[in-house]
Amino acid sequence: MSQKAIREFDGKNILARWFKANSKFEWPEIAQVKPTTTIDELTQTHAWLNNKKLVAKPDQLIKRRGKAGLVKLNATFTEARDWIQQRRDKEITLEGVKGVLDHFVLEPFAPHQASDEYYVCITSMRDGDEILFTHEGGVDIGDVDAKALRLFVPITEQPTAESITKALLSRSLPSAKPTSRSLSPNSSLPTLKCTSPSSKSTR
After folding, report:
1. Which of 2, 119, 122, 143 meets the CB 3.0–4.6 Å disulfide criterion with 137?
2. pLDDT tens, position by position, for the chain (203 residues)?
3. Any idea what DSSP says for residue 187?
4. Are 169 and 148 in contact (CB under 8 A)?
5. Residues 98 and 115 in one domain
6. Among the three residues 109, 140, 162, which one is the final residue of a domain in this structure?
């Protein structure tokens, strides 16, 4: 079965829909900048862009964006807009791959330490979905395949709080994080950093 990576914007909207239906967790806002988007007009449908500090970054399945200087942090809307405009429709070469930057996302900026970041990836397969999770996220995450805990969910089943806790949250957390965590169907979940699956293209 072939697999296709999806944009961060689409992945987070899928997660937001399920979090809203199954928990009290309030998913942060997100806005997409496509090739046809007039950035200033985004504030008409996303009023929060004018009153929050923002994160701006390309949304094209690019790995290690932070290390490549492709993430703008703690920016006003004007600063984020100008940062995007300076890079929009420009060709870049990253890790030997060339591509044009034409999709971006804008999100609220949440001050935090590197130790507060997690990594989660969901891959759909023929027989079900595999969830990869590590207690370490951010730009220095390293080899995810080697360190991630995994939970396979057959297509005919639904994951339970107990199966998620046992398979993905059993490993001891760094001292800066809680030493244990259990989930219940109505629990407020921790903020997860959604990282796009790897891809060899910047498109």
Report:
1. 119
2. 567 889 999 999 998 998 888 888 888 899 999 999 999 999 999 999 999 999 999 999 888 888 889 999 999 999 999 999 999 999 999 888 899 999 999 999 998 887 788 888 888 999 999 999 988 777 666 677 778 899 999 999 998 989 999 999 876 555 444 433 334 443 333 333 333 333 333 33
3. P
4. no
5. no
6. 109
Q: What's the CA gap between 66 and 85, in Å, rounded? A: 18
Asked if residue 69 and residue 164 are part of one domain, the reply reads: no
Length of the chain: 203
Say yes or no: 147 and 189 in one domain.
yes
Q: CA-to-CA distance for 103 and 9, rounded, in angstroms?
A: 10
* 21 and 115 in a common domain: yes
Gap between the Cα atoms of 201 and 64, Å rounded: 13
Q: Which two tokens stand for residue 81?
A: 């807009």
Segments forming the whole domain that contains residue 83: 29-109
What whole-number distance in Å separates Cα of residue 127 and Cα of residue 24?
30
